[in-house]
UniProtKB/TrEMBL annotation:
Membrane topology: Multi-pass membrane protein
Keyword Cell membrane appears in the UniProt entry: yes
Record protein name field: Fe(3+)-hydroxamate ABC transporter permease FhuB
Phylogenetic placement of the source organism: Bacteria, Pseudomonadati, Pseudomonadota, Alphaproteobacteria, Rhodospirillales
InterPro entries from the UniProt entry: ABC_BtuC-like (IPR037294), ABC_transptr_permease_BtuC (IPR000522)
Annotated signal peptide: none
Chief localization: membrane
Taxonomic source organism: Thalassospira povalilytica
Family: Belongs to the binding-protein-dependent transport system permease family. FecCD subfamily.
Length: 661
């Protein structure tokens, strides 16, 4: 059995290698038939367009795919070994988002004379992001769940910041967005010549440290007792891993999940020694990305558009996370530990008073007070102010209603799933809703709000059903539901990127909507979503007793007479409809559906009815504040409300995460 298992990585590598040989033969075949293979590689005929295209586009793209895949897989293997975390990678730990944000700022702001510092800027962005994740998770002993949560927080924070920058530089939006989606298309050998020495240097450095990596894999105490300088080694190896990642992203954009899926697959296949894992990761990662890119190239040119390889890679890599979670119990912590880890950080009475006062004063403040560049300006009550007041009312109440809808949705998901870290955006509901609407609008031409709401709700429901099926094996344990939800969100996000790169002139509008904007709302739509939210909130409150039973767990609920499966589906259906309604009105919003019920619970709203009302009060206030800030923070320009809400949410969870308890 052991010998058979040890042969799996070799057999996998041979199969992938043979597939890549087949790809090379397929690409070279037109020239092999004519005996021009050597010529097209080294000295193409300048009068033959096919030879020029192959030599300066296809051939460097093949080399680039191998180098990027090899580098990212090696970086992922090193990070996983150092942190002893099978779900760690440049993507999940915020390194990719840090590099992408740094390069986005650099490309849009830095003058051409600063180009020589681009790589250093990218490296700094990746190191700062990884450092932030590590500092947050270190407060929790670098537990697997908290590393991934910290990475998610940093990722969302940096992605929100990147979107803000892009939305104010629309002239660069399509090209930067395509680069951010991971574009391996080449028009020469310059990018390959840039990345080749850097990836080789990183590989040599990491492979040279493979023996100390074996010591780190044993644990810090054991490594220290054997004479290893754990902190120095960890920083060195992480530094080289980030250097490789920064080099790849600088040259080709963000390519996700190769650094996670490849080393994780090799570990499952039986590789344990660090040196073997690193060598196999280099070859396997290179071959895998070559194969994925070859598949992508077969779809290029359809409709005149290009399919980004980086986004397509997530479609192959993210499902593998789900496979990992189903194959091995990587987190032994119990569910009860997760549930009772909350501390009451603010009193329920104090929070209720603050929220009530804020709501009353905030509505008046939001409607009548703004910034005009010189300070606060008060809106008068003359006839000319009516249109301004109407516009502010539409936007303010749209944001508030969406906050309420997402708060109820998140509360239902958290209570029924018995998961204090679940929410519409993290479980994939918001992403599925947005994706369904984008496909319906951009590809099939649906434009009616009623049609889009039905389609979006259907997408959210399907996403929730898939998540429940995936987590059924683990009785919906919080960490497995969270990580499977993140994998689903990654898959759906990749499809969104692919659709956006093929949406042409609609990209700017869709990007604004995806960032969460109240700009396009009108009062009729606000009232419709308000009615849906009010009705479903009343239904949820009327079902507060079954919600309490559902929170006790499957066995207890069934013993007390609750048909848990049917009730769970009904509550998830309500949650999906609420998320779809909010997404239709404003766009997908991050963290509101997670933060509102979470803060309500730690404030003391424990019973289902109070939990729902407390979450609604928090969600309404958060979105009201976010909308006013988005409208006035950089007047006369405006920011997307959803991005401001995301910044508020990530700030809250940053503070929560760095607490010892």
């Amino acid at each position: 059995m052991t010998n058979t298992r040890s042969n799996i990585p070799a057999a996998l590598l041979v199969a992938l290698g043979l597939s890549c040989i087949g790809i090379l033969i397929a690409d070279f075949w037109p020239f092999l038939q004519k005996g021009l293979a050597t010529q097209v590689m080294f000295s193409p005929d300048e009068t033959d367009f096919d030879q020029i295209l192959f030599h300066y586009s296809t051939l460097p793209r093949l080399v680039m795919a191998f180098l990027c895949g090899a580098g990212l897989a090696l970086a992922g293997a090193a990070i996983q070994t150092v942190l002893r975390n099978p779900l760690a990678s440049p993507t999940t730990l915020g390194v990719g988002a840090g590099v992408e944000f740094a390069l986005t700022i650099f490309l849009l702001v830095a003058p051409a004379s600063m180009a020589i510092f681009q790589e250093a800027f990218a490296l700094a962005g990746g190191m700062i992001a990884l450092g932030a994740v590590y500092l947050i998770a270190s407060k929790r002993g670098n537990a697997t769940l908290w590393l991934i949560l910290a990475g998610m927080i940093v990722n969302l924070l940096l992605q929100s910041a990147s979107q803000i920058v892009l939305l104010f530089n629309e002239q660069y939006l399509q090209s930067v967005f395509m680069w951010g989606a991971g574009d391996l298309a080449q028009n020469g050998w310059e990018a390959t010549q840039f990345i080749l020495p850097r990836v080789i240097i990183g590989m040599i450095a990491v492979l040279a440290l493979s023996r100390p990596l074996d010591l780190l894999a044993l644990g810090d105490d054991t490594a220290n007792s054997l004479g290893a300088k754990v902190t120095v080694l960890r920083l060195l190896i992480l530094g080289f891993a980030v250097f490789i990642t920064a080099s790849v992203i600088s040259a080709a954009g963000l390519i996700g999940f190769v650094g996670l899926a490849v080393p994780a697959a090799l570990r499952i296949a039986g590789l344990t020694r660090s040196r073997d894992l690193m060598i196999y990761s280099v070859l396997t990662g290179g071959f895998v990305l070559m194969i994925i890119d070859f598949i992508v190239r077969q779809f290029n040119g359809l409709g005149g558009d290009v399919l980004p390889t980086g986004a397509a890679t997530a479609l192959f890599g993210a499902p593998f996370i789900i496979l990992i979670l189903r194959k091995a119990r990587i987190m032994p912590g119990t569910q009860s530990e997760d549930q009772h880890s909350d501390q009451e950080i603010v009193s329920k009475l104090g929070l209720s008073i603050i929220l009530g006062i804020t709501l009353v004063l905030g509505i008046g403040f939001s409607l009548f007070i703004s910034l005009d560049g010189n300070g606060f300006a008060v809106l008068g009550l003359d006839g000319d102010s009516y249109d301004i007041l109407l516009g502010r009312s539409e936007r303010t109440f749209a944001a508030m209603i969406c906050g309420a809808a997402l708060a109820v949705s998140g509360t239902l998901i958290q209570r029924v799933g018995r998961n204090p870290l679940a929410s519409p955006e993290i479980t994939g509901v918001s992403s599925a809703t947005a994706l369904a609407m984008i496909i319906a609008l951009a590809i099939f031409g649906f434009a009616q709000r009623a049609e889009l709401m039905v389609i979006g709700a259907a997408g959210g429901i399907v996403s929730l059903l898939v998540l429940l099926v995936l987590c059924r094996k683990f009785t919906h344990a919080p960490h497995y539901m969270l990580l499977n939800g993140l994998a689903l969100t990654a898959i759906l996000g990749a499809i969104v990127r692919i659709v956006l790169t093929r949406s042409g002139t609609q990209t700017t509008m869709l990007m604004s909507w995806l960032a969460g904007t109240t700009y396009f709302t009108n009062m009729n739509e606000v009232m419709i979503v308000a009615g849906v939210t009010a009705v479903l909130l009343i239904v949820a409150i009327a079902l507060r007793r079954p919600l309490e039973l559902a929170s006790l767990g499957t066995d207890q609920s069934v013993s007390l007479g609750l048909g848990i499966s049917g009730f769970q589906f009904a509550m998830m259906l309500l949650a999906a409809i609420l998320a779809a309604s909010a997404t239709l009105l404003v766009g997908p919003l991050s963290f509101v559906g997670l933060m509102a019920p979470h803060l309500a619970r730690v404030a003391g709203y424990r019973l289902a009815g109070g939990h729902l009302l407390g979450a609604v009060l928090i969600g309404v206030n958060v979105m009201m504040v976010a909308e006013w800030l988005a409208r006035n923070l950089i007047y006369p320009a405006q920011l997307p409300t959803g991005l401001i809400a995301a910044l508020i949410g990530t700030s809250y969870f940053m503070i929560l995460a760095v607490r010892k308890r």
